[in-house]
Amino acid sequence: MQAEVGAIVDGKVTGLTEFGAFVEIGEGKTGMVHISEVAPVFVNNIRDHLAINQEVKVKILNIGEDGKISLSIKKAMEPSQNTQKPKQQGSNNRRSSSQANVWQGTKTAPSSENQSFEDMMARFKQVSDEKITDLKRSSESKRSGGYSRRGGKQ
After folding, report:
1. Is residue 149 part of a domain?
2. Whole domain around residue 113: which residue ranges?
3. Is residue 35 in a domain?
4. Half-sphere exposure (CA, 13 Å, Cβ side) for 107?
């Protein structure tokens, strides 16, 4: 089997480093999968995703003049596997789905497929201005303690 750019081949993980994995793709040829090409999600520790002697499918991205072979596991995945979004971690999980939709503009805005870029930007600006105004009102009322800045009672 001749290794050529764009081909998807079976391989076997032969080594792991902090920056990637070495994969044997046959005929004594070994390529490297950079850590950014291991999975469609952020990979902090490659050992969480791969193990030595693990069988993997890889796509050949590049074959350098020096014979170095660049490989990708995530580009060799089927499109349905590659397009799944990872679950958000951290404070974003505390937001309700309605709050997330407001920021994405999907709660009250019409479908973006039917809008021009200028219409979407105008809608974004309007929503942002409303949020800033509400935030200012809220923080002003908390700060003032019931009295306006002019000194009189509200």
Report:
1. no
2. 93-144
3. yes
4. 11
- What pLDDT, in 10s, does the model give residues 66-83? 989 999 999 988 765 544
Low-confidence stretches of the chain (pLDDT beneath 70): 1-2, 79-114, 141-154
Q: What is the pLDDT of residues 31-54, one digit of tens each?
A: 999 999 999 999 899 999 999 999
Q: Report how far residue 90's alpha carbon sits from residue 104's, in angstroms, rounded to the nearest whole number.
A: 19
CA distance 32 to 69: 6
Residue 42: strand, helix, or coil: coil
Q: Which amino acid is at 49?
A: H
What distances in angstroms separate CA 146 from CA 10, 70, 73, one per listed residue? 70, 65, 61
